[in-house]
Prior knowledge:
InterPro entries: DUF3553
Strand order of the largest sheet: 4-3-2-1-5
Order of helices and strands: EEEEE
Structural class: mainly beta
Distance between the termini: 26 Å
Pfam families: DUF3553
Amino acid sequence: MTSDRRYSLSSPYRGVTILTPGMLVRHPTEEDWGIGQVQSVIGNRVTVNFEHVGKQLINGDVIALVPLDES
């Protein structure tokens, strides 16, 4: 994994298997978007509703969303 939290095509971390609808996440490079809630995960496509920019479609092969600790 590179320092900007993007995955290379050969990375073993590709994909979005840890994300499920309802999870709270942050975008690793767009902090001003605020906290987002995962709406759906279909293949590598993750739909997230962020506080300040609304619904965004994220390519999970390119952007590693950061799950928030819910404790």
